[in-house]
Amino acid sequence: MASLRTASPTLRSYFKENYIPQVFEALLCGVLVTCPEDPLRYLEETIITIMESGLESLLWDMYIDPSMKPKIRRLSETYMERLFGLEDQLITPELMIKACTFYTGRLVKTHFCTWRNIAISRTNEDDMLAEKMEKATKYANFRLQKYIFHHWHSHAKVRKEQLNDMLLRIQGKFHHYKLIIILNKWREKARHRYKKREDELMLKHELQLKRWKSNLKGKTAAEEKFIFPERSMSEVFLIGCCDISALPERAVSRIFSHLSLRDTVVCGQVSRSWLLMTQIRSLWNAIDFSSVKHMATDKYIVSTLQRWRLNVLRLNFRGCALRQKTLRSVSLCKNLQELNVSDCPTLTDESMRYISEGCPGVLYLNLSNTNISNRTMRLLPRYFHNLQNLNLAYCRKFTDKGLRYLNLGNGCHKLIYLDLSGCTQISVQGFRNVANSCTGIMHLTVNDMPTLTDNCIKALVERCPRLSSIVFMGAPHISDCAFKALSSCNLRKIRFEGNKRITDACFKFIDKNYPNISHIYMADCKGITDGSLRSLSPLKQLTVLNLANCVRIGDVGLRQFLDGPVSIRIRELNLNNCVHLGDASMVKLAERCPNLHYLSLRNCTHLTDIGIAYIVNIFSLLSIDLSGTDISDEVFCKGSLLLEHLDVSYCPQLSDDIIKVLAIYCICITSLSVAGCPKITDSAMEMLSAKCRYLHILDISGCVLLTDQMLKHLQLGCKQLRILKMNYCRLISKEAASRMSQKVQQQEYSPGDPPSWFGYDWEGNPLTEQRRIGSLEEDSESILKQSVYSSDEEAV
């Protein structure tokens, strides 16, 4: 066992893992050096100490007295490893000899090389120096060439960029001048075509006017002789050879559907064939008794309802003072779907009981301004299970408890539209009852409600998430908090008016929470500024915007509004009395609004011809209101060929030229207002009558130079005229006005002098400041006298 070199790996591993060589080494070294008297006792104590302290910290001289420890240079980890043959990497004598030989040879080589370098002198030192100098010179020249080339490359690059920029600039200038040449040629051609078109229109206008004047005398004489004094238009029509009774029933029904109840009854008295035509069942699906409320008797109404009870679908009794028996006869119409009994003073809860029991299929019910109470509110959910539209405006006798009845039985859960205008008795609890009963409401109208607060709105929207349309006119206590509460609804239509607590903050809620909103009416809201318009600019679905009387809006806000995507779809824009608007915003309006149909700029006093000239480029305009502005005669009509509605009232600087241009270019116009324009004469109205044959509405109030001849022209040319207003027309006689009233459906006439706020007298001369003040005092005194007289009459 002198060596374990040939032992098995397991045995060798066992010896190493259990520190057997180290144990033996420590024990033998301790025994050999210390030479104890009782070696066995010494070995026993040493082994016990090793067991207690562990094998990891065991050293070979641990149990030798320090004074007796030998000073031996350590060549291996333990002496016993060599004794047992466990040192695999110990230096052997052969390896020691090789190491000494290698070290000696390396040392000899190093000293020999050093001696050789010192002893042997260099013979080619000059050649080497010259070679190094040559290399250094080449390197220096290369560095210099590199430096110069770098600077040249940078200069060449900058020069190339300058040449490219110059070339691009030249190309841009060339393209610019080319476009200018093309634009000038196009402009010349467009001017030529425009002038040619204008000449053709003027020639056509002159020919038509000449033909009109040549035929005027003959037509006037013939009509005065045969038709005008005695026969109306209906009588003239009846003289013709056309027999309406020969037409198909569908065509006859379509013709008679445009007549009122009174006209239908009158037509039934013409002949037997006409009586049969008026008995077509489809004509009696909708009966409007409100148009004959002062003529129709209760007996006639009852007999009519009894006869057509199976055909009647819609009934209108608005403002009819009927007896209870007559109202009960409504229950005979079992198929009734729409019922309007608003403003009926005799309607009671008992009448509604009969109606509700007999007409369970009603979808639309208008009870506004009646005396119904909670008893009627209890009947609604019991009988009208399919009710969709309910109007309770100005009904003051029902309470919050009545609104709670809407949830009884099957309830009014199909209700979509609800009108609670003027119901000031409703509290927050009442709106909470509405929310619990009618969760499907989509359209809510609450006008003339000074008691309406933000808490009412919060209570309502908690259970009505489908609200899409709200109308709060005359609700001064609604603030921006209401819009925050409405953020949970998908609103599409908002209408407020006369509210001073709404600020720009509400429009921020609109921008974030109502992306699909299409109609916004915020008239007479003094807290709205340009910031509101900036918030509305991202709305892509907005088509109607009404900010009338919002006096703090100016050009900056309107331009920011039009810069957004909202300008593409905007169809109607009302900016009446926005006095800070000027010509700058009109430029942007013409550029960004290709689909604008209706534009109102009434009393925007800073607008001039320069701004209005840009509106000409909006070819989609159908209606424009420029009353109270400082515009000239020919500023816009030449480009507005599709114009249908025009209001230039209270523009005293306008003359006959505007009517002439209107008659030439806007022959499709249907509504015209030139009230407060004292320079308009009969010759202008003659041209209008000759060309604008589709005119339905005409307002010439305050046109003090017009005479009876103008009415003759209107009678002969404007056959479709329906509404005529001619107040303060002193030169028009009462006889002519009376004859004209037989040709139109509605007429307003007064021969008095124009009031002082028109700004001119009865001859059309401008009033001075002193005369205006005097006229105002006279007007106030006359108004005061009228009020005193009216109060005395009431007292009597």
Features:
796 residues, alpha/beta, 19-stranded parallel sheet, 19 strands, disordered C terminus
Q: What do these coordinates show?
A:
It comes from Equus przewalskii. This is F-box and leucine-rich repeat protein 13 isoform X2. Keywords: Leucine-rich repeat, Ubl conjugation pathway. The radius of gyration is 53 Å and the shape is elongated. With 796 residues, the protein is an alpha/beta fold. It has a 19-stranded parallel beta sheet, covered by helices on one side. It is built from 29 helices and 19 strands. 47% of the residues lie in helices and 8% in strands. Strand 13 (598-600), helix 24 (609-615) and strand 14 form a beta-alpha-beta unit. 29% of the residues are buried. The model is unreliable at 73-77, 225-241 and 782-796 (pLDDT under 50).
